[in-house]
Amino acid sequence: MKPFDVYPLYSVTPERAKGSWLWDENGTRYLDLYGGHAVISIGHSHPHYVHAIKNQVEKLGFYSNAVLNPLQDQLAALLGELSGYPDYQLFMINSGAEAIENALKVASFATGRQKVIMLERAFHGRTAGAVAITDNPKIQAAINPIDHVIKIPFGDLDALENALSLKEACAFIVEGIQGVGGIYSPEAEYLQAAKSLCDRTGTVMILDEIQSGYGRTGAFFAHQHAGIKADIITIAKGMGNGFPVGGVLIGPQFTPWHGMLGTTFGGNHLACAAGIAVLEVLRDERLMLHAGYLGNYLIRRLKEIPAITDVRGRGLMIGFSLPYSSADVRKRLLMEHHIFTGSASDPNTVRLLPPLSVTKGQIDLFFEALIQVLQTTPQPA
Ligand SMILES: Cc1ncc(COP(=O)(O)O)c(C=O)c1O
Fold it and tell me: What kind and span of H or E run contains 247?
């Protein structure tokens, strides 16, 4: 057997990693400004995280959700405290798409409604419900599109008001910052107005913070820069720093009943140990503050480069645009300068999603390489 060949691959084989560095099988060192797609939050192989996982798997790696698991309580309490949502409830799963599926189910159970309002350029995952509210027909199989999705333009409050006024939608879902779409932040005023419109029409506001959450933008969640509270929040990626774990933060207004949601692996002992260690490092190393500070530095320096036409994002979730496809620039950064960056669905965009512990010196190395690559990459006429 061989792997199902669905990923276009770079010919790099990372074997070990530390902080924001990766090493391949020849000992060549790479700078990770991609974080394995915004997954690495506290840095690769953080000693506290490694110790916590090793320690837990030696004691008890897994038992089902049929028994008491104090680690889930500990994780939920710490997450509530650090995120500013202490009165919310946590349901744990294993991935971002599963977080979306369960968030939609809670909203639909609570309202009895069927439709979902989504935004243009949105990405929420690839499972059935999540891909149906993802704005990319290429990744939808014939079975996926559903007729209870209302797609509206990004940032268009009138369109949102019209869609909500039908009172047919269980949820309005919005990314804290659109990630895969190319790093587009909803305006604070838009989010504030959207929240009151949702409240007025009995619609659940779901904030997808799977990519933009966990301190990446300098606040625990990107939507907190707008001073709003979401009804339901989805998390994954940075939550486990590479350990597959996701969560749904569910407001106190939602009452669970036994059997309402469920999963075999979600919230297992090992996942909780990884998740607790991530939060402890995030808190103890003040990584949110660091992400905000370094993000401002990155944005300022990117804006000084004439070849860059647009710089977007916040903290360590940054997108910048070139006037041509960024593919060659990204490839040269990787192959010649050994620096990983990310792409987006818009081909001209480069995404930067480094570990939150990346240093200013590492960012400076990136700028040296980027300036050199931009000066020597032939531009299409
Ligand atoms: C905003 C957002 N939501 C959902 C997902 C899906 O997460 P996963 O790939 O873990 O299923 C992603 C993945 O990139 C994402 O960026």
Answer: strand 246-250
